[in-house]
Write a structure and sequence with these properties.
The protein is mainly α and 258 residues long. It has 12 helices and no strands.
Length: 258
C-alpha cells in the first residue's frame, strides 16, 4: 500500500461506524479520551490566555470573530495532522523525534519557570506588535492569521501528546476535537482551577514528560499498558493535591507567624 493510499485509508476509517460503536462501548477508550481531555484542559488554560492577549487590541465583537476563525483553522489542522500522523507515527524515527520534542517541551517549561513567568504572553504581544501580519492583511485579518499560526503551534504539541497516549484513530480524533473545543469553551474553568491549585499547571508538563517516556519506550518495543498508565496518572494527580495542601498549610503557618 502506497503512502497516499495508507493516508486515504486512515481518513476512510473516520467514517467507519462499526469502529465508532466499538470505541463508544469500550471503557478503556473513554479512559484514554478522558486523559486527553484533562491534559488538553490544563494546557489550554495557558493557551487561551495567550490568544486573549493576541486579540485584545481588536473591538470586542471582532475579537470573538478572530477567535472563531482560529477555531475553524485549528479543527482543520488537527484533522489533517491526525490523518497523516497515524501513518508517520508507525515510523520509529518519527516516534523518537516526537518523544524528544515532548520531553523538550516539558524541560523548557521547568527552565522557564525557574527564570520567571510571562514568556508566552510576551511572545504573543511581540507577534502582534511586530506589525508584519497586520501590514500584510490589515488589522483584523492579520490578527486572524496570527491566531491561526498560534493555534497550529498549540495543535502540534497536543497532537504529539495524543499520539503518545494512544494510536487508536477514533480516540485521537475525539480527543483532539474535544481539546480544541475546550481551549475556547472551557479554558476559563481550567484557569480558575489552576488559580486555586497552581500545582496543576506543573502536573500537566509532568504528564507530557511521562507521555514522552511512554512514546520512547514503544520505539524499543516496551509497551506501557493502559492500566499501568492510568495508575501513574492517578498517582501523579494524587501527589499534586498532597503538595498543594502542604503548600497551603505552610503558607497558613507563615501568615500566623507574622
Amino acid at each position: 500500500m502506497s503512502v497516499i493510499e495508507h493516508i486515504l485509508h486512515t481518513y476512510s476509517q473516520f467514517f467507519n461506524w462499526e469502529m465508532w460503536g466499538e470505541v463508544l462501548t469500550d471503557p478503556v477508550s473513554w479512559g484514554l479520551i478522558g486523559t486527553l481531555v484533562i491534559l488538553e484542559g490544563l494546557l489550554s488554560a495557558d493557551n487561551a490566555l495567550v490568544l486573549a492577549v493576541m486579540v485584545k487590541h481588536l473591538p470586542p465583537k471582532k475579537r470573538k470573530k478572530a477567535l472563531f476563525y482560529g477555531l475553524l483553522g485549528a479543527y482543520a489542522f488537527r484533522f489533517i495532522a491526525i490523518g497523516i500522523g497515524v501513518f508517520l507515527i508507525k515510523l520509529w524515527w518519527v516516534k523518537v523525534l516526537g518523544a524528544g520534542y515532548l520531553a523538550w517541551l516539558s524541560i523548557k517549561y521547568f527552565l522557564d519557570k525557574r527564570k520567571g513567568a510571562g514568556h508566552d504572553e510576551e511572545e504573543a504581544e511581540g507577534l502582534n506588535q511586530s506589525g508584519l501580519l497586520i501590514r500584510l492583511f490589515g488589522s483584523f485579518w492579520g490578527t486572524v492569521v496570527a491566531v491561526e499560526l498560534m493555534d497550529i503551534a498549540f495543535s502540534v504539541d497536543s497532537v504529539l501528546a495524543a499520539f503518545g497516549v494512544s494510536e487508536a484513530i477514533w480516540v485521537l480524533l475525539i480527543g483532539g476535537m474535544l481539546g480544541v473545543l475546550m481551549m475556547r469553551g472551557v479554558a476559563g474553568v481550567f484557569l480558575t482551577l489552576i488559580d486555586r491549585v497552581p500545582e496543576l499547571e506543573t502536573t500537566a508538563y509532568i504528564l507530557i514528560l511521562i507521555i514522552s517516556v511512554k512514546m520512547f519506550l514503544s520505539v524499543i518495543h516496551i509497551e506501557m499498558g493502559h492500566i499501568t498508565f492510568f495508575i501513574i496518572l492517578l498517582i501523579t494527580f494524587g501527589a499534586t493535591f498532597i503538595v498543594h495542601f502542604r503548600n497551603k498549610k505552610r503558607e497558613g503557618s507563615k501568615e500566623n507567624n507574622l
